[in-house]
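agent: user wants the structure for Putative ATPase from Prauserella shujinwangii. delegating to structure tool.
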Amino acid sequence: MAVELVLLTRVSYRGREITGPRLRGLLALLADDLRTGCGTARLVEGLWPDARPEHPTKALQILVSRARARLGGELIESTPAGYRLALREDEVDASAVLRRATAAARCLRAGEYPAALSHADAGLALWDGAPDDPPPGWADPVAALRADRAPAHQELARTRALALAGLGRYAEATGELARVFARRSRDEEILHELLRSEAATAGPAAALARFDAYRRGLRDDLGTDPGPALRALHEQLLRGTAPAVRRGVPHEPNPLLGREADVTAVTELLRTARVTSIVGIGGLGKTRLAHAVAHRTELPVVHFVALAGIARDTEVADEVAAALGAGESRRTPVGAAATDSATAVTAALGGGPALLVLDNCEHVVAGVADLVRGLVAATRDLRVLTTSRTPLGLTSESVYPLPELDQATTVELFTRRARAARPGADLPAAEVDRLCRHLDGLPLAVELAAARVRVLSVAEITRRLADRFALLRGGARDTPERHHTLRAVVDWSWNLLGDDGRAALRALSVFPGGFTADAAAYVLGGDALELLEHLVDQSLLKVTEERAGTRFRMLETVREFSAGHREAAGETDSALRGFLAWARDFGTAHHASVFGPEPRREGERIRAEQDNLLQALRHAIARDDTATVAATAAALGGLWIGDSDYTRMVPLIAEIVRQLSHVRPEPGVTEAARAAATLCTAYCLTVQGSHLARALFALRRLPPAAPDTPVRAAATVLCRLPELAGSGPAALDELCDGDEPLVAGFASALASYAWHGVGDVDRALAASRRMIDVFAAEATPWMLLMAHSRMGELCLQINRGEEGRRHLRAALALMEEAGTWPDTIGIRWALVVANLQLGAVDEAEEWLSRVAPDLVEDDLGLVTFDLAVRAEIRLARGDVEGGLRRGGAPAPG
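agent: tool returned. relaying tokens verbatim.
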């Protein structure tokens, strides 16, 4: 909520400056106690401290009346004892600053440094610079209020400095901490963080010099020593003058691309969490990221221990102890305690700040969790970083899910590694981009694909990705053996799963476009959430939050691996039955939803499942599963027609119509079949003339239904097409003037095109207006959009630019409000033409600028039209030569 009453740096209400001293004082007194207000006696005393008016209460009433007249009658409310401001605490800066200071301090105590910094910044933003000290003998209520809030400003500045230090932003923190310490020279918490920040920026020597100066001053003034926290930091700084220790941390042979943000994020987590786990599927580069963090960390001692070579949980402590030089490497018998080794590890790490990195923990996660739990309890300054495909599950743990590389970084990495493999290789940008889109953003997959450039072109590599596990193999000799093939990487995760987890992955691989928990239940049976959570923990599923809700997604690499195991296990038919059952139920539930009152939400829901529904439609056609064909075709057809994505229908329309015309659908999917047949008939009628007779046959053989929904009404009109064709305009007029409003609306749409086709523009316009009236009354956004678009189109054809522009704007507003139709280019083009007809050249050019980014270079028709419109605009501006050039004619000599 924006601040409405400003008192701390100036006095204004809703941006309007207030200059009268009595009115300023009244607002300051009332703001000082916003919740209860101020009594009459207190207000009189504060406003007239020296010479009281003859009638103080009356004078106060007059002042309040003037304030109400100037600032609004609702601002000052009367109370039984006096008056109060009718504003919330966040609407008055003098109250908001106290709330921010309290919240910032609370977050700082809890170690929530980002939140503390946010609150401190918001609070300090309420001041225009630091508050001045009040002059001696002041009695102004505004000055008194500001002086009362000055300590809050100081606390906010202190909190901000400490939060910056807590976040490790030492360069920013140093100056602010020094300024706070100059005012509070005995604040040892501030000095503690100032010393840490100086050590990190200027070096330990500068911090040690400041500490010595503070200690001498303290002894001289108070005869005492710094507190225990400062003395401990002093000892740490003395140790910090020694070189940093990095044990077992290799230097990488080539740059780590695209991971700077991840390195920063993990480094920040290490400052605030005792245990941080980098989690992700194999081949993502978790180990390389841990190497980079280990080199970057400010902690003076780092131990890096690889655990890939051990096999049992009981061996973890022994392996770590051996790596730290705390004893001979030994293998503890199964069932025996590892207490001695854990104690040795604790002793080897010492009492100072250190980072222990445990790499590849997923196969011994229980043993790692036990060891880390004990180390955290036994040490104060130790930080632990793990890399794993699953979290440890500790309360001290912060999990960092490592994302895949973005497309740009994937392309850069492939290009670099391909050039290293064969410097003269031809790497066409478009081909490289296409290949990289199939590599899941996995650095390992990119490296393996780039190595194939030695013997294959980029296009050949892309084609061979149909069998990616055979193609992507043969890693570099200096990489772990488990990374020499992509199959080995996924197989490592697969072998860590139990039977239930593997069976779930096999079944879920039937979904090509991700899935919801409800969809997963169709192929897993029962409550699938626990299994899904387990697979997420193993980094084999990713969770995404989308507008349509929470979805689970497999990397294509994992999906293909699981699908291969599904085929080998003979489970494909069973998985497909569940998949098709889900698609049938989904399509039945949403067969006409984009034509209802909430097209945005429903369109997003269907669009999220588009790849799955399309796959289900193809399987259903192959199996002659008419019910599923009807349900999925209805949902997809509605989405594609709503999006004007007609090309998606072309390869499928013949098979959909064949299925619908041969077999009567099950009773439960009759309405979905009606929607599918209606959409196919409309498509064949308006876009592609072939298959119209068969689509209409499929529609007419369905049982009749009352035209009480948009789909049923459209079906009613389309079923009358043969009769209308034979009876002429009279039969069409009868439908347009009938008692069923939705039928009248769709019939009017048909009539608009019919009358326009025979040259009767007036009747075509009348029919279009009837469409608008009907569909506006019926609250059907898609049909109303269609009506306004049709009306705008007609108006432009007869040069009624103003009326056309009005309807086109209404259509565009419906598009943007509903959010279902991503392609608005047709409406925007029409608005360009409408404005040109009206001579509104500037507005036409503005609309043209909105169209230009959506032009496709190989769409010759649109590009030609764009050139023609630009020529028209130049001619309208009097630039004849430029207009002729834009239009394609040679410039006059």
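agent: one observation worth passing along. The radius of gyration is 37 Å.
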